[in-house]
């Protein structure tokens, strides 16, 4: 069971990492106050010095009721003022007609690690870069083209031959035959097999360091706990494994013909003026007019030397004449849109 020396921080001047054995601050000389919080640095070595071990095992320090100095438990009187251990005195003393009071501890300044500050700086830089990259801006642009395109789908009623497990509405049966629809799992038998099974078995216990105990004099002692020790053991067991076979399930599958409307052709018109029109439609046998599509685009040359395209509804598109200047909004990714969109 190891004993390790702790550290404490001076509340008067803020000096950190003072040795646990020190009863005074090596920087400002202030006495280690009552109730000071000792702490144990990570990976603190075990104490091997016999004198230090004697101090650690002697017991908690005591605080002088007269001057507030910290003293070892075996000291019969205060090392600073000579007051006997345990004697009650007033907390305020008079020296040369001046009143001296026990100084109020000063909280050590809080320090942020360089790693935290570095991460915050990196995040701030990334946010600023993203804002700069995606921040849109308005620019002047000249209209260079106003292309348009219109198209209409022409559908034709076409007779198709299809096959399925059922006949849809409008389908006309041509033939049917039994086919495998799916397979069912059917239990056939059981077979005896063996397998290795591993399990954890407790074979004893062991002691380990589960924490520390503050000895109240600047030293810490390891706290020991017990935990079980397990061993992996393997045994062979037999079991019955079910064996299944795939049993085909047959159902009638139908072949049928059915009439469906399919897109047969898509006549279209296009231009670069403000006079769009739909293509002339002449329907043939078993044809009908389907959905229409219209696309209106304005091409711009920006003052930054780049070209942009913006699609828009017909009513808006008609407001843009070739050669005129307009304000558009662009971002660094090359996307453009109108200011009021």
The assembly state of the depicted protein chains is single chain
Question: What is the mean pLDDT?
Answer: 87
Q: Fraction of residues in helices? A: under 10%
Q: N- to C-terminal separation?
A: 75 Å
Largest sheet entry: 10 strands, antiparallel
Number of helices: 3
Helix-strand category: mainly beta
**Low-confidence runs of at least 5 consecutive residues:** 88-112
Shape: flat
- State the order of secondary-structure elements, H for helix, E for strand: EEEHEEEEHEEEEEEEHEE
Report the C-alpha radius of gyration, rounded: 46 Å
Give the strand content: over 45%
Topology, number of strands = 16
Structure description:
By secondary structure, this protein is mostly beta strands. Among the domains are: 143-154 and 264-337, no CATH class; 158-207 and 232-258, no CATH class. 10% of the residues lie in helices and 49% in strands. The protein contains three helices and 16 strands. The chain has helices at residues 50-58, 114-134, 314-317, and strands at residues 3-5, 7-8, 18-19, 62-63, 70-71, 93-95, 98-100, 137-145, 148-164, 172-214, 219-265, 268-271, 287-302, 307-311, 325-330, 336-337. Strands 1, 8, 9, 10, 11, 12, 13, 14, 15 and 16 form a ten-stranded antiparallel sheet that branches. Strand 10 and strand 11 (219-265) form a beta hairpin. The longest helix is centred in the middle third of the chain and has 21 residues, at 114-134. It is flat. The two termini are 75 Å apart. Mean pLDDT is 87; it is low at 88-112.
């Amino acid at each position: 069971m190891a004993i390790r020396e702790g550290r404490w921080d001076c509340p008067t001047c803020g000096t950190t990492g003072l040795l646990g054995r020190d009863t005074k601050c090596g920087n400002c000389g202030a006495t280690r106050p009552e109730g000071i919080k000792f702490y144990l640095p990570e990976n603190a070595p075990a104490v091997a010095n016999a004198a230090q071990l004697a101090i650690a095992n002697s017991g908690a320090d005591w605080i002088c009721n007269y001057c507030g100095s910290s003293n070892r438990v075996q000291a019969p009187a205060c090392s600073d003022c000579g007051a006997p251990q345990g004697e009650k005195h007033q907390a305020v003393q008079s020296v040369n007609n001046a009143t001296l009071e026990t100084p109020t501890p000063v909280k050590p300044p809080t320090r942020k690690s360089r790693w935290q500050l570095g991460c915050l700086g990196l995040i701030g830089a990334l946010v600023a870069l993203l804002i700069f990259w995606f921040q849109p801006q308005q620019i002047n642009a000249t209209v260079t083209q106003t292309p348009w395109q219109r198209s209409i789908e022409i559908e034709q009623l076409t007779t198709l031959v299809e096959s399925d497990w059922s006949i849809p509405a409008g389908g006309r049966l041509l033939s049917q035959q039994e086919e495998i629809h799916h397979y069912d799992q059917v239990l056939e038998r059981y077979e005896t097999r063996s397998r290795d099974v591993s399990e954890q078995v407790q074979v004893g216990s062991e002691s380990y360091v589960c924490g520390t105990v503050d000895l109240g004099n600047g030293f810490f002692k390891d706290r020991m706990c017990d935990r079980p020790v397990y061993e992996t053991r393997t045994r062979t067991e037999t079991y019955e494994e079910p064996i299944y076979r795939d049993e085909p399930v047959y159902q009638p599958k139908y072949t049928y013909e059915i009439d469906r409307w399919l897109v047969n052709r898509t006549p279209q018109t296009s231009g670069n003026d403000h006079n769009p029109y739909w293509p002339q439609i002449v329907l043939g046998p078993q044809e009908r007019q389907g959905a229409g599509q219209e696309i209106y685009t304005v091409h711009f040359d920006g003052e930054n030397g780049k070209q942009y395209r913006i699609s828009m509804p017909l009513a808006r598109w008609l407001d843009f004449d070739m050669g005129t200047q307009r304000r558009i909004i662009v971002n660094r990714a090359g996307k453009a849109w109108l200011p009021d969109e």
